[in-house]
Amino acid sequence: MYxxxxxxxxxxxxxxxxFVLGWLWYGVLFAKPWKALVGVKEGEKSENAGGGxxxxxxxxxxxxxxxxxxxxxxxxxxxxxxTFEGVVCGLxxxxxxxxxxxxxxxxxxxxxxxxxxYWLIAMMFSGGVLAVWH
Length: 134
Known about the structure:
This protein is an all-alpha fold and 134 residues long. The chain has five helices and two strands. The chain has a two-stranded antiparallel ribbon.
C-alpha cells in the first residue's frame, strides 16, 4: 500500500520500532534516571497514559513518514546507507531544537543525553528499515 510514493507498511513498521524502542529506553534501560530527571515519582501514574501513548505513536508515524519522504529524495538502497541518513536527519533536524529546548528550560545535560541518544538510535534504525523496504 503506497501513499505519495511511500510504502505505508514500512512507515508503520518504523513507527512501531520507534515506539517499542521508546518503551525499552524510557521504561526499562533509563527508567530510574529519566524519571528522576523529569520529576516523576516511583509508582506515579499518568492520568491519561493511554492518550499520551496514542499521541506518541501518531508522532512516531509522522516522523517515519517524513524519513520515508527523505529516502525517496536520496536513493538509499541498503540498510547501512539508510541508517546513515537516519542519523544525519537526527543530527540535523532533532538534536539542534532539542539542545535549544533543554537550554531554554534549564534541563540537566544528562536528560538531554538520554533524549538525544534515543532519537538518534530511533531515527537510525527507522532510516535503515525505510531504506530497505521502500
